[in-house]
Amino acid sequence: MPHVQDCFGASIEINNAHLSKWIVEMMALCKPDKVVLCSGSEAERRSFTELAVTQGVLIPLNQEKLPGCYLHRSNPNDVARVENLTFICTPEKEQAGATNNWMAPKEAYEKVGKLFDGSMKGRTMYVVPYVMGPIGSPMAKVGVEITDSIYVALNMRIMTRMGQQALDMLGASNDFNRGLHSMLDCNPDRRYICHFPADNTIWSIGSGYGGNVLLGKKCLALRIGSYLGKTEGWLAEHMLILGVESPEGEMTYVAAAFPSQCGKTNFAMMVPPKRFKGWKIWTVGDDIAWMRVGEDGRLYAINPEAGYFGVAPGTSMKSNPNAMKTVLKDTIFTNVAVTKDGDVWWEGKDGPVPDELTDWQGRPWKKGSTEKAAHPNSRFTAPAANNPWKSRFADDPGGVPISAIIFGGRRATTVPLVMQAFHWAHGVFMGATLGSETTAAATGKVGVVRRDPMAMLPFCGYNMGEYFAHWLAMQAQIAYPPKVFLVNWFRQNKDGKFLWPGFGENMRVLKWIVDRARLRVGGQETPFGWVPRAGDLDLSDFDISPETVDEATAINIDEWKTELESQGSFFESLGEKMPKALELQREFLLARIESMHGKWVVHNSKS
Ligand code: GTP
Ligand code: SPV
Ligand code: MN
Predict the structure, then answer these.
(1) Measuring from atom 20 of ligand 1, which residue has the nearest CA?
(2) Any idea which residues carry the catalytic annotation?
(3) pLDDT tens across 288-324, in order?
(4) What is the DSSP string of 554-592?
(5) For 28-69, how does the pLDDT look when each residue is reduced to its tens digit (9 = 90+)?
(6) SS3 for 37?
């Protein structure tokens, strides 16, 4: 029996033999000074917070303005996910596929094990039991993260159902994800995020930031989750979930996959414009959806998370008032700037830019500086319970029935505002060919268009071709498949300005999507999918010219030929597991437009 204590130093007994054995093994490897088991209690949160403040890991913010809120500054070399250091460790390289970095499990355990050896000397090992998914949901999964970061423990308490409730759910079972994390010396040369799907194990070392270290999130809920989904017949997706309530009280649930920093949190918390008086948007989740087929043949989704790890820059009372209200209390901010009176600040926040700030690295910052005050990937960790529009079904063990699935990327050209797929396989094709410009959510160059299938390129824990096949195969299980859509809020004019105002105004597109899913609004057939006909999109009370709407919704055949060729080389790069059905979709589309000899014109603005 390992010597484990609570946060106040009292000895604790661990009743699960598998957990106990694993803790002993990890103690022998990491050699911590002491081991603390997290209960998730309020007293523990206070104690951890105090300790984190003493250690300088957390900096108290203005407690009058922002009660319970703290700032964390990560190492400047450690501010985003590291896709190049993220590995899927399967016996065969083919199992990880062409889109993942691969290491053989034995090699990974040895190589990274050497780094873990003694990594927690002089430090505390926190054992963080947690549940992904509503407690009691048949879809929920238990994980235990062993970490030497108190910041991770505090974040996991917000992002998951953490502590005793997870141990209760686990009982005597051995079925839990084993996550091991150490900050080590936060050196990028000794940074690895390794996933062992066959062992339900994750090893993360050398980072203290976000998706690299909050192992329930991208590592378990998506990379391991997608693998489990394939094996067990469900879907783990990088999707927000929202409920659209009509003025009559009709509720329609939608799930939407946009790549990192492409608008999920904003869409999930959207406030409809005045024109849509009486319409309400309820947030179920803002980043991840686990979906399985219910007994009634519909697709049901749960949000495995309990908090939002949201992008700070660009968040304002104008763009996302609900997020602004959500982060007013009990929130941990990472890498934002601070005002003189201990308030938070980031680029795009309301009000005038302050004359002086402390920037995300703790340096003095003056208005007019060419450097950003907040890091572009600075974030808030906030409890979902703070969201005034949190859906009352967000914690429902059965999940919510999904009527529409939306894929969307950040594309300056080519992709129109909205299109609907003709059928499930065509929708899978739309998702599989999703392209998007890279963002600050991952290290590397920003603004480069890459294929990001289903917004899962960095998160699919197995061979991408097999993942597509799994999506196609799901159709046989779903008697009432959701309708599938492709959107693009980010199309630009010649001067590089966004054509579509986005944010709340996306309600106009969402309304069409809901009405299409419920088979009660028109559409125009194009070779690429259904688009709104003139008059189908509600453009009343809208400060935008008809020409701009036409530009945002235009389909340019030449651009699409280039697009389809680029999709072709992507499909080719995926290797043998790539399903023929999707390549045929692409060839069919190419052949159709080649036989059209001419221009395709769609006018949407006229009503
Ligand atoms: P991750 O948490 O990284 O997965 O990001 P996300 O998909 O939740 O993106 P988020 O909603 O945080 O938005 C990312 C950035 O896109 C922010 O700077 C937003 O201001 C901006 N953004 C969101 N929605 C829109 C939109 O409709 N139009 C435009 N132009 N920008 C948007
Ligand atoms: C993303 O990058 O998609 C995020 C942030 O949601 S992180 O948790 O760092 O992955
Ligand atoms: Mn995300």
Answers:
(1) 314
(2) 262
(3) 999 999 999 999 999 999 999 999 999 999 999 999 9
(4) ---HHHHHHHHHHHHHHHHHT-TTS-HHHHHHHHHHHHH
(5) 999 999 999 999 999 999 999 999 999 999 999 999 999 999
(6) strand
**Contact predicate 194/111, CB 8 Å:** no
Predicted confidence at residue 599, as pLDDT, reads 60
User: Count of domains in the chain?
Assistant: 3
Task: Give the pLDDT score at 596.
Answer: 79
Q: Which of 258, 305, 311, 493 to mutate to test the pocket of ligand 1 (most atoms within 8 A of CB)?
A: 311
Main-chain phi, psi angles of 65, to 5 degrees: -75, -40
Closest CA to 314 of 502, 444, 494: 502
Percent of the chain with pLDDT over 70: 98
Ligand 1: atom nearest CA of 319 is: 20
262 lines ligand 1 (CB under 6 A): yes
Q: What is the pLDDT of residue 595?
A: 84
Is the domain of 380 the same as that of 331? yes
H or E element that contains 429 = helix 424-432
- 484 with 376, same domain: the answer is no
Residues 131 and 227 in one domain: yes
Number of other residues whose CB lies within 10 A of the CB of residue 603: 14
Q: Are the C-beta atoms of residues 69 and 329 closer than 8 Å to each other?
A: yes
From CA 352, how far away is CA 15, in angstroms rounded? 55
What single-letter DSSP state applies at residue 50?
H
Percent residues over pLDDT 90 in the chain = 96
Residue 331 lies in a domain: yes
Are 321 and 409 within one domain?
Answer: no
Ligand 3 centroid, distance to 377 Cα (angstroms): 11
State pLDDT tens for residues 425-471: 999 999 999 999 999 999 999 999 999 999 999 999 999 999 999 99
CA gap 260, 81 in Å, rounded: 10
State the residue range of the domain holding 249: 237-306+393-595
Instruction: Output the pLDDT for position 598.
Output: 61
Distances (CA, A) of 167 to 88, 306, 409, 555: 28, 17, 39, 53
The answer to whether residue 351 is domain-embedded is yes
CATH number of the structural domain spanning residue 183: 3.40.449.10
CB-ligand 1 contact for 283 (6 Å cutoff):
no
Helices of type H across 233-330: 264-268, 321-326
Strand pairing category for 400-408 and 483-487: parallel
Packed helices 105-116 and 17-30: angle between N→C axes, nearest 10 degrees: 60
The last residue of one of the domains, among 386, 413, 447, is 386
261 and 338 co-located in one domain: no
3, pLDDT greater than 80:
yes
State the pTM of this model: 0.98
- What's the average model confidence in pLDDT over 374-378? 98
pLDDT tens, position by position, 237-256: 999 999 999 999 999 999 99
Give yes or no for a contact between 81 and 215, defined as CB atoms under 8 angstroms apart. Answer: no
Contact 285, 394 (CB under 8 A): yes
**Tokens standing for 352?**
């005038």
Backbone torsions φ then ψ of 481, nearest 5 degrees? -65, 145
Write down the pLDDT at residue 2: 82
Q: What is the 34 CA–ligand 3 centroid distance (Å)?
A: 33
